[in-house]
Amino acid sequence: MSILREIPPLDVHVPVVIVGAGACGCVAALAAKAGGAEVVVLERDARPQGNTALSGGQIPGAGTHLQKAAGIEDTPALLAGDLIAKAKGKCDAHIAERIAAESAKTVDWLVETHGLALSCMTGFRYPGHSAAHMHSPPHQSGADLLAGLVNAVERAGVDIVCSATVTALYADDGGFIQGVQIARPDGAIEHIGCDALVLACNGFGGNAELVRKYIPQIADAPYLGHAGNRGDAVIWGEELGASLKDLGSFQGHGAVCMPSMTRLGWGTMSEGGIQVNINGQRFSHENTGYSEQGLKIRSQPGGSAWAIWDSRCEASVAAMHNHIDCWSQGAIKRFDTTATLAQFIGCDEAALVATLKDVSEGRCAFGRNFGGKPPLQAPYLCAKVTGALFHTQGGLEVDTQARVLRNDGTPFPNLFAGGGAARGLSGPSDWGYLSGSGLLVAVNLGRIAGESAATLVRRT
Ligand SMILES: Cc1cc2nc3c(=O)[nH]c(=O)nc-3n(C[C@H](O)[C@H](O)[C@H](O)COP(=O)(O)OP(=O)(O)OC[C@H]3O[C@@H](n4cnc5c(N)ncnc54)[C@H](O)[C@@H]3O)c2cc1C
């Protein structure tokens, strides 16, 4: 991955080139095309997948038509407030506010103009959500979300060129991107010129060396994101002199079943479930966020814990695609008594009973308020879980037009970024990730980047 100065003879010139065919790249393509630009999307895989296909497909939006129809009251101010509060004020508030302000327009446009089958999620609220912000395809499947986006891109007449890894950018001394080099699986090299480039190639979760360098605390955890997200945007950005922010930031997850590596629906915890260690004892406030719960579990003996919930909690997640996977992999077990549950965990039954009694009587050494949730009741559901890395949250600093910024704060002339390639809204670490923030940034910065790129090429 490099920046090259001398551009060779071009195979083709396309005004707007987009690197990566995940949610960000697809939405950027739709927006650039709608803005009147000719566009191509370049994707390294043989078919688009990315983190988007692995995700739960849940996109926050504040004030959407779907929410209004469902009687949900929500505003951009509420969503921006939730994002900034979760990040303890350490994200870029201007970007958070812009994205929150655009979020309803983006969801409405995806549903009403591009036919995406989204609906409001009302079963449970994620930590830090002060309104029911989430919209998702049926069964919360990211693969369904991406399939809908790819179909829309094809219907819009934009080519997604697969098996095309962008290996270098051609930039002049002023940082103007003239084109890209792509490598094909058979070793062929091609060159595509452009007037604007959108980096939608996500972060560096798939690059073990960069993860160890910037986020050593999660480097030994399983990585459940897309292997092809190798940090190319960060590598190019560094060489170009772009401003890179929050490289130590990431979304972890604290409900990944062992050994299946499937993830429990978070309603198991937010509706009143708990996690205990091998001693049958709780070790955390489980519901501050699933991201930060990952490292809390990894600090326990054996780097693992046991999630315990009941059929009331289960009802909130029973239709979720990823949760159904946990059942089909045999990761979730059912126990009628505390004796059999303790035996499964390998802990002392008396210790486990004491833990459950504390919870049912509202006692918590970690400040969790079970407020209004009925005590857990047999039969208990239980899965052995660990903490994992889902995706990185640091990246290229962009302005409210999704223009990539230099270290001195000025924008590059024709370089845009969104999704996981850009700095996220989580602040410096794992505790600032508000659920849904990944796709929120992907689809909204993607739309803004596509619109900005189209505006730029119309002028040139
Ligand atoms: C298990 C899991 C669950 C998640 N659940 C949710 C959720 O429910 N809600 C939410 O908001 N977020 C969720 N996330 C995060 C979310 O998936 C991401 O934030 C979002 O999908 C990022 O979109 P993107 O378009 O930036 O990246 P991606 O979807 O990863 O797309 C990037 C694309 O770029 C391609 N690419 C990379 N480098 C190159 C190159 N050099 N040349 C060509 N192509 C390249 C990749 O192959 C990939 O297809 C989840 C993540 C994981 C891993």
The distinct bound ligands, ions and cofactors come out as: flavin-adenine dinucleotide
Shape: elongated
Sheet/helix structural class: alpha/beta
Quickly count the domains: 2
Instruction: Classify the fold: give the CATH topology of the largest domain.
Output: FAD/NAD(P)-binding domain
Number of helices: 15
Average per-residue pLDDT, rounded, comes to: 96
Distance between the termini: 28 Å
Which stretches are poorly predicted, pLDDT < 50 over at least 5 residues? Answer: none
Rg is 22 Å
Mind describing the biggest β-sheet? 6 strands, mixed
Strand order of the largest sheet: 8-4-3-12-21-20
Helix content: 25-40%
What CATH architecture label of the largest domain applies? 3-Layer(bba) Sandwich
Strand content: 15-25%
The strand count comes to 21
Return the CATH class of the largest domain. Answer: Alpha Beta
- Fourth-tier CATH superfamily name of the largest domain: FAD/NAD(P)-binding domain
Account of the protein in words:
The chain is α/β, with parallel strands linked by helices and 460 residues long. The protein folds into two domains: 2-249 and 393-459, FAD/NAD(P)-binding domain (3-Layer(bba) Sandwich), CATH 3.50.50; 250-389, Flavocytochrome C3, Chain A, domain 1 (Alpha-Beta Complex). It contains 15 helices and 21 strands. The strands form five sheets. Strands 8-4-3-12-21-20 form a six-stranded mixed sheet. The chain has a five-stranded mixed sheet with strand order 1-9-10-11-2, with helices on one face. Strands 14, 15, 16, 17 and 18 form a five-stranded antiparallel sheet that branches. A hairpin with a 5-residue loop joins β10 and β11. The longest helix is centred in the C-terminal third of the chain and has 23 residues, at 437-459. The radius of gyration is 22 Å and the shape is elongated. The two termini are 28 Å apart. It binds flavin-adenine dinucleotide. Flavin-adenine dinucleotide binds at residues 19-25, 42-45, 48-52, 54-58, 165-166, 200-202, 224-226, 228-229, 232, 390-391, 419-420, 436-440, 442.
